[in-house]
From TrEMBL:
One of its GO terms (cellular component) is cytosol. Its cofactor is [4Fe-4S] cluster. It comes from the Bacteria. SMART domains: Elp3. Its EC number is 2.8.4.3. The keyword tRNA processing applies. It is an enzyme of class 2 (transferase). Residues 417-480 form the TRAM domain. This is tRNA-2-methylthio-N(6)-dimethylallyladenosine synthase.
């Protein structure tokens, strides 16, 4: 099994994004996204901003006036991929499209800033994750023949006032950003540097965006953020400034459990998911809110990174192995059918064989439904990059990664087998990749189910009897519509 990117659908990595074209727009934008779902959603915001500047999207690189690549810095491999794409754009530019402009967006733009212009000669435009509203001005600069850079990180920006243009949408499920940035400073992670400090979006604008999605017949909304459980709205600004807010603002603040409750109550027929939950910020209020609403899906992505206390400490994760296990116990106690998934990093600085065994042991304890596993990749500028020795040899990292992935696959199968014989509600999200006569959807636990299409339609909620499974997919037969239609 290949290493997998978390919450990322590998099939959409680097896919040029298309929107419905407007007749009055004359310029052509080719926009590609790499990395996390947040980047995919940011590209939808960028497309909305550029739509107003006269750009339609295209999938043909050769005909683009403007090429934008939304980049990821999380591991070295992600950056290498983007550099290869830049070489490709360069060839097209030289061979057939001399006036084409190229811009780099997202985390690599933020990390490398002006260096991009020096290192990658073809780049005209460098824009960090908080500066997309400045794109019209920056493009003006570029069109006048100057390079343009804006990598200023913001205290306020949540793009709450921009209604994203949905790109490559299945028309059924969509993502809505609720927080930006991260304050956690895990020592291995570049995100706090590239996406800035944590801030939450006004619940009013979140609910309005969801309403507009529901009006367009969307059936499932995933609330997005680096750390959604840390959501806190008290009138705007950085989370770390909460203590400085007025007493009134503090007293009327909205936390994540309350936001979830508001969403689920206002839109009882809409399914809600959220990602990602940092264990240290996960409150039992959230679990109780999930238990209260049928339309909040029973699945939590709860990255742990390691099962060893020594590693958790070195990573600056704010909880111990024991605290994590207690949280998991409580979750299963309150919602026994809950599905959990992990992110794991193997081979972090100083990881011993015993630390690695602790990780396998923790996995055995939780038996995660899904997992996203990575070998540690040192990132420049992070505390680990500056102060710790990346001392686990590559072959050891590789072997440990294989062990972790193999164990995860065993647990995934254990979990999928538990669905056999049950009748489960599935939201139809598209045609199965393997069989055009079958639908593909997910149950509340986020497990993919395929079943014969019969008379059912995209976007229907259907009860499906589960008859067979692999470690990744359930197979079944529809037995009727669910009561959610
Ligand atoms: N809180 C974020 C985490 C983003 S990073 C979110 O899930 O929205 C996603 C995952 O990448 C992390 O959970 C971690 O497992 C992995 N990761 C981050 N930095 C890494 C590094 N330097 N090397 C390897 N994996 C890393
Ligand atoms: Fe990164 Fe840790 Fe935040 S993994 S995104 S610093 S929670």
């Amino acid at each position: 099994m290949e290493q997998v990117e978390k919450i990322i659908d590998e099939r959409i990595q680097g896919k040029a994004l298309v929107t419905e074209n407007k007749k009055e727009n004359s310029k052509k934008l080719f926009i590609e996204s790499y990395g996390c779902q947040m980047n995919m959603n940011d590209s939808e915001i960028v497309a909305a901003i550029l739509d107003k500047q006269g750009y339609n999207t295209t999938q043909v690189l050769e005909e683009a006036d403007l090429v934008l690549v939304n980049t990821c810095s999380i591991r070295e491999k992600a950056e290498t991929t983007v550099r290869k794409r830049l070489q490709k754009y360069n060839r097209v530019k030289q061979e057939s499209n001399k006036t084409m402009k190229v811009g780099v967006l997202g985390c690599m733009a933020e990390r490398l800033k002006e260096k991009f212009l020096e290192e990658e000669k073809i780049v005209d435009l460098v824009v960090g994750p908080d500066a997309y509203k400045d794109l019209p001005n920056l493009l003006e600069e570029v069109n006048e023949g100057r390079d343009a850079v804006n990598v200023i990180l913001s205290k306020e920006e949540t793009y709450g006032d921009i209604s994203p243009v949905r790109l490559n949408s299945n028309g059924v499920s969509a993502f809505v950003s609720i927080t930006r940035g991260c304050d956690n400073m895990c020592t291995f992670c570049v995100v706090p540097f590239t996406r800035g400090r944590e801030r939450s979006r006004d619940p009013k604008s979140i609910l309005e965006e969801i309403q507009s999605m529901v009006d367009k017949n969307f059936k499932e909304i995933t609330l997005l953020g680096q750390n959604v459980d840390s959501f806190l709205w008290f009138g705007g600004g950085l989370k770390k400034d909460f203590k400085k807010a007025t007493e009134m603002a503090q007293a009327t603040a909205v936390d994540f459990a309350q936001l979830l409750d508001m969403c689920a109550t206002q839109f009882p027929k809409t399914r809600f998911r959220f990602s990602t939950s940092n264990p240290q910020d996960m409150s039992l209020d959230v679990i109780h809110t999930m238990a209260k609403h049928k339309n909040i899906c029973k699945y939590i992505h709860l990255p742990v990174q390691s099962g060893s206390n020594a590693m958790l400490k070195a990573m600056n994760r704010q909880h111990t192995r024991e605290e994590y296990m207690e949280l998991v116990d409580n979750i299963y106690k309150i919602i026994p059918e809950m599905a959990l998934s992990q992110d794991m990093i193997v081979g972090f600085c100083g990881e011993t064989e015993q630390d690695h065994k602790d990780t396998l042991d923790l996995m055995e304890y939780v038996k995660y439904d899904f997992g996203f596993m990575f070998a540690y990749s040192e990132r420049p500028g992070t505390l680990a990059g500056k102060k710790m020795d990346d001392d686990v040899p590559a072959d050891v990292k590789k072997r440990r990664l294989t062990e972790v992935i193999d164990l995860q696959q065993k647990h995934a199968l254990y979990r999928t087998q538990a669905h056999l014989g049950k009748i489960e509600e599935v939201l139809i999200e598209g045609t199965s990749k393997k069989n055009p006569n079958e639908w593909k959807g997910r149950n509340t636990q986020n497990t993919v189910i395929v079943f014969p299409k019969e008379h059912y339609k995209l976007g229907d909620f259907v009860n499906v009897k589960v008859e067979d499974c692999t470690s990744a997919t359930l197979k079944g037969t529809a037995v009727g519509y669910s009561d959610n239609n």
